[in-house]
UniProtKB/TrEMBL annotation:
Transmembrane segments: 253-270
Matching PANTHER family: AT11025P-RELATED, VESICLE-ASSOCIATED MEMBRANE PROTEIN-ASSOCIATED PROTEIN
UniProt biased composition (Low complexity): 169-183
Domain MSP: 7-125
Region entry Disordered, spans: 150-213
Protein name, as recorded: VP33-like protein
SUPFAM superfamilies linked: PapD-like
Main location group: membrane
Keywords tagged on the record: Membrane, Transmembrane, Transmembrane helix
Family from the record: Belongs to the VAMP-associated protein (VAP) (TC 9.B.17) family.
Subcellular location(s) of the protein: Membrane
Keyword DNA repair: no
Basic and acidic residues bias: start-end ranges: 187-213
Length: 271
């Protein structure tokens, strides 16, 4: 390990990603920036020199300048069971004043305590889905923040009855909006859980509605019974027992005429 902190700004700083297929040369760029006021000599080394080709593999970066190093992975037969342990190291040192005649000799003569180095891992992605984690982290945080703000805006208001946007016991007029999955919670099973929760809530409201209807029917029957029991018996008897005149099959004047005829007949017999 070097005792000095790396003076160059290296992008990417953690790993180099090579996207497949690996039937042809795959190139990954390594950007080296010199933010100091001194010239910096650099050299790129790898644990697998036969597998990679680096251009340029060494050089000098002027103050406030940068350079792009092309790291080319040579074609090979990819084996997913083979564990990749390839690594790169960017070694640097401050360049001496004046013109540099022989860089190789300079690297051989430099003192180890004046060297600076940075190590990077190699990631082989046959599907092409690998992304640098250091670049993705800020994007993920921004997306999570946006999702939380959207969830606060779309969440329905809660009433004292505990139901969103309606009174307790009333039928559901519309389905509430689905909640957004919080960070760290599995997204794949969230829609099924929301649907199941909504179905249970709808069934509960239907049951409560049925109970209200049954209570209303019982109250109507009870009110009818109380009305009947409070009615006077004489009035009920008068309503239920019709008069003899009303139940007769003939009107009253028919009986009067019959009485007159009978009276006339009886008078003639007596005379």
């Amino acid at each position: 390990m070097s005792k000095l902190e790396q003076v160059l700004k290296i992008e990417p700083s953690i790993e180099l990603s090579f996207k497949g297929p690996f039937t042809e040369v795959v190139t990954a760029d390594l950007r080296l920036t010199n933010p100091s006021d001194k010239r910096v000599c650099f050299k790129v080394k790898t644990t697998a020199p036969k597998r990679y080709c680096v251009r340029p593999n060494s050089g000098v970066i002027e103050p406030k300048q940068d350079i792009t190093v092309a790291v080319m992975l040579q074609p090979f037969e990819y084996d997913p069971n083979e564990k990749n342990k390839h690594k790169f190291m960017v070694q640097t040192m401050f360049a001496p004043d004046g013109k540099i005649e022989n860089q190789e000799q300079l690297w051989k003569e430099v003192s180890p305590d004046k060297l600076m180095d940075s190590k990077l891992k190699c990631v082989l992605d046959p599907t092409g889905n690998s992304v640098n984690q250091t670049a993705v982290a800020p994007v993920k945080e921004e997306k999570v923040r946006a999702v939380k703000q959207e969830a606060v805006k779309t969440e329905p208001p809660q009433t004292p009855g505990g139901q969103a946007g309606g009174q307790s016991g009333s039928p559901v007029s519309q389905v509430p909006s689905q909640k957004v999955a919080s960070p760290g919670e599995p997204v794949s099973r969230k829609p099924d859980a929301d649907v199941k929760s909504l179905q249970e809530e709808i069934q509960k409201l239907r049951d409560e509605n049925s109970v209200v209807k049954e209570s209303e029917a019982r109250l109507r029957k009870l009110a009818y019974k109380e009305t009947v029991s409070s009615t006077p018996h004489n009035y009920q008897d008068a309503q239920q027992s019709p008069s003899p005149m009303a139940t007769s099959a003939f009107p009253p004047y028919v009986y009067l005429i019959a009485c007159l005829i009978i009276g006339v007949l009886i008078g003639k017999i007596l005379l």
